[in-house]
Amino acid sequence: MAIHITTTWLGNMKFESTNPSGHNLFIDAGPENDGNGEGYRPKALMLSALAGCSGLDVASLIKKMKLQVDDFKIEIDANLTEEHPKYYDKVTMAFHFFGSDLKESKLQKAVDLSVEKYCGVMEMFRQFADLKVETYFHKK
Question: Is the pTM of this model over 0.90?
Answer without folding.
Answer: yes
